[in-house]
Amino acid sequence: MDLSLLQELNRDRENRNAAILVTRMSDGTQRLVHRDGKLSSDPLADDLERRFRSGKSGTVETDDGDFFLTVSVPAPRLVIIGAVHISQALVPMAEMAGLDVTVIDPRTAFATEDRFPGSSLKADWPETVLKETPLDAYTAVAAVTHDPKIDDFPLIEALKTECFYVGALGSRKTHGKRLERFKEAGLTDLHFDRIDAPIGLDIGAASPQEIAVAVLGSIILALRKAPETAR
């Protein structure tokens, strides 16, 4: 492997950037592909996009020859805003599904080790936590506090940084008021289309545990399926 490509790939891994090393099987020539706006013009675009979503390496056969795609994607993360009953059910399920989970809530009455044993719990304001651990494209954000003072900032940041999933608890009326605030913050309809609200798959969920199942389903759907397929 070319040393410069290896160094670039290592930098991508350190910075949680997704990349695929494309190796032509016939002669061993290699190139590194990143998941950005230029991907659509790549001759292997469809296969690369599928690999970025699955996270699995493998061989691709084309009319131009065979290629091996070595996939390097960050571990998917879930940031839950709100240490509520839904979060208590969602944390262990999300961890079993392979997500690195962080729960953020400045309300110390809710954010306790007793309620969230073993989880990555941050009893602080989202503004403070996310400054130390920024969001990225391989992070899902689920805001479930019902409190705009806590939910709004991480939701806006999630949309700006193109998190793969952005969900928010609340009725349609509540969400409408949320969008009015977000317009004042400079967001547009393109951003709003990416918000899953009311949060979770429409499975008729009633209890916190059922809502947690619906939320996790939406997150996995957003992670593994192309947007048009997910819709």
Task: Describe, in plain words, how this protein is organized in 3D.
- With 231 residues, the chain is of the alpha/beta class.
- The protein folds into 2 domains: 70 residues, no CATH class; 154 residues, NAD(P)-binding Rossmann-like Domain (Rossmann fold, 3-Layer(aba) Sandwich).
- It is built from 9 helices and 10 strands.
- The strands form 2 sheets. The chain has a 6-stranded parallel beta sheet, with helices on both faces. It has a 4-stranded antiparallel beta sheet with strand order 2-1-4-3, sandwiched between helices.
- Helix 3 crosses helix 8.
- It starts with a helix and ends with a helix.
Keywords:
alpha/beta; 231 residues; 2 domains; four-stranded antiparallel β-sheet; Rossmann fold; 9 helices; six-stranded parallel β-sheet
